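This week, look over our next protein:
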Amino acid sequence: MIVALFKTDMPAACLIYKRHTSAMKYLKESELRQLLSLIPNHTEPFHVLQWLRQFVPTVSNTHPKLTPYIAEWCIQKTRTLQYADHWPEIGLEFASKVAKIFEEIEFMHW
């Protein structure tokens, strides 16, 4: 359902993901990587940030080995923004907000 909403309603995909974050620990790392790759390239940067605000903290706690992969994905996403109308401002804003998302991660202690 989330993947289908990526194409039509990213805010709804974020809500559904947030509601079912407890199920993320049952997904394989490859499935979580694929989930990121299914976000359409034309998705507005604001919506990508909304997704990352939900996705990064959860996955960093359930699958901490994926954190470098997610960081690299965010770097690549920032690079794609160089073709946007408001480059470099949009890239700088996106990158700074992504950095803040990673800074705010709180790891749970088991």
Observations:
- The two ends are 30 Å apart (CA to CA).
- Residues 45-62 form the longest helix (18 residues).
- The CA atoms of residues 22 and 58 lie 9 Å apart.
- The chain has six helices and no strands.
